[in-house]
Amino acid sequence: MTPIKHIATRFALILALAAVLPLVAYGVISLVSLQRGTRESIVAGNLNVAARAAEEIGRYLTGHAEILKALAADIQDTGLERWQQDRILKNYVLQFREFRELTLLEESGAILASSRIGQPRVAAAPGDATTVAGVSMSPVRVDDDLLPTSVFAVRLRRLNQPAGWLVGELALEELWRMVDRIRIGEHGFALVVSPEATLIAHGDPDNKALVAQARNMSGHPLVTPRPGSPAWQEYVDESGRRQLAVAARMEAANWTVIVEQPTAEAYANASALQRQLAIAAASALLVMVGVGLVFGRRFIAPILSLQRATQAVAEGRLDTRVEAGSADELGQLGRSFNAMADRLVQLQESLRREERQATFGRVAVGLAHDLSHPIKNIGNSTRLLVREDIEPESRAALQRTIERELASLNRFVDDLRNLVKPKPVERYAMDLNAAVSEIVESMRPEGDSSGVAVAGSYLGAPLTIDGDRFALGRVFRNLITNAIQATAPGGEVTITTTRAGDFAQATVADTGSGIPPERLAGIFEDFVTTKRRGLGLGLAISKRIVEQLGGAIDVQSEIGRGTSFTVRLPVSRAETQAAAS
Description:
Elements: H1 7-75, H2 82-95, E1 99-105, E2 111-114, E3 130-132, E4 135-137, E5 141-142, E6 148-158, E7 161-171, H3 173-181, E8 189-193, E9 199-202, H4 209-212, E10 232-236, E11 242-250, E12 255-262, H5 263-266, H6 268-314, H7 329-385, H8 392-420, E13 428-431, H9 432-450, E14 453-457, E15 464-467, H10 469-486, E16 492-500, E17 503-510, H11 517-520, H12 538-548, E18 552-558, E19 562-570, H13 573-580
Parallel strand pairs: 14-16
Antiparallel strand pairs: 1-2, 1-7, 3-4, 4-6, 5-6, 6-7, 8-9, 8-12, 10-11, 11-12, 13-15, 16-17, 17-19, 18-19
Helix pairs in contact: 1-6, 6-7, 7-8, 9-10, 10-12
C-alpha cells in the first residue's frame, strides 16, 4: 500500500482526535474524579456505620455497667440482712435476664449472697479486667453453650472503705445479635475485636466459628495499624477476595469495631458507571473514525485518481486523463494535469518527428557520402574500360578497382541488412591467433598507404575458440580500419592476443588522437561515429557479433595518446577441459 492511501486513515484519526480527544480527556478526568469521590463517599458511609455500631455496642455495655452500679448502691451501706440481700440479687436476675448470676462477696472473698441457688460459678472479681463506666469487665469468653459471656464487678465501700465486691456474670448474646444486624449490602459484615486482638463477634455466618476459636486478629491491617495510617484499608483476605475495611474505636471497652465489604460490591455502581462512560467514549471515537474514513476517502479520491494517472503517464500511457469536475483546488490540479498530459503528447510527437528527420538526414548524408565514392570509381573505371586504347595492364587495374568498390558496396549493404536483421553466426573451433594474423597481414597494405605501421604480437600457444571466422574477420577488419583512420601518418597500430583465465583476448591499439570521454559511452550505438564520414554502424555491428559469440568488447581511450579496443571471447570447452586434465 502506497503512503498516499493512508491519508484517509490519518484524516479520520485527526478528525477523531480533534473531536473526541477533549471528550476523552474529560471522560478520563471524570472517571478519576468519580472513582476518587465514590471511594471517599463509600469509605465515609462505612465509617459512619462502624462508628454508630461502636456507639451502640458501647451504650449496651455501659448500660449494663450502670445497672450493676445501681444495684451496688442499693446493697451497700443499707444494713440489710443477708437474706434480704439474697432476695434483691435474685429479683435483679429475674428483671435483667442478661445477668445470669449476681454474687455479693466480702473483701476477704467470702460469699455473702448470690442469686444462684447452690454454689456460685463466679466467686471472685476478675483480675485482668477492663474498666467500663467505672465497672471492671473481664475479657469476653465463650461458655459451654458456645455463647459469649463476661464478668462485671463493682467494688463495694462502707464509710469510704473497701467492703467487698458485687460480681455479675453477663451474657452477651445481644451483643452478637447487634453485630449480626450490622449489614452493608449483601456481603458486608461487622466484627468486634478486643484490645488483645481476640475476635469477640463476627457478623458473617461463615466465620462465626472463628469466635469460638478465640481467633487472634493481629494480622488484620486495622487491628494493629501503623501510626498515622487511615481508619480504612483495602486488603486481600484469606479467601482471596479484596475487601474494603473500616474501623471505629469503642472507647467504653477499648474494643475495635471493623466493618468489611468486598470492593467488587462496594464499587459496583461506580464500576458500572465507569464502564458506561468508557463505552460511550469508545463508541464516539469509533463513530468519528468511521465518519472520518468516509469523508476522508471522498476527500482524497481526486488525489488517488491523480496518483493513478501520474503512474500511467510515467509508464508511457500518455492518453490517460483525470476527471476534474470540482471547482476547488483539487479540480484545478486535475485540469492542470490534463493540460500537462496534452502538452506531453504534443512534445512526444514533435520529438519523434525531429528524431525521424535527424535519423533520416544522417542516414541520407552517410549513404550519399559512402556510396558516392565507390559509384564514382566504378563509373570512371567503366568509362575507361570501353576505350580501345587502354593497355592490358591498365585494364586489369581498372577491373580490380571495380571489384574492390563493388565489394565495398556489398559490405555497406550487408551492414544495413545486419542492422535490421542480424545474421546468425556459425560456431566452430578456430585458432584466434591464426585468424587475427591473417587479417593483420591483409590490412598492412592499407596501413602502408596511409603511412601507419600495422604490427601484430601473438600468444605463443594456440587460442582455440568456438567462433565464426568470417564474422570475427569482419570485426577485426573494422577495428583495424578505424584505428588506421584515427592515426596520423607515422603512427602505429598494434594487434595483441593474450589469454586471461577462460577467455582469449585480442587488443587493437593505436597511437591516434583518442576519443573524447563524453563520446565513449555511446560509440557502440547505431548511427554513432567519431569520423567525418560513415553511418556509424561498424562498432555497433561488431559489438553484436562479439556478444552473439558469448564475449564482450570494451574500449579505453586517452586524448592525444590513442585508443585500444579489447575483444574477449570464451576459450573452447575442449581446450578448457584439456587444460584442466
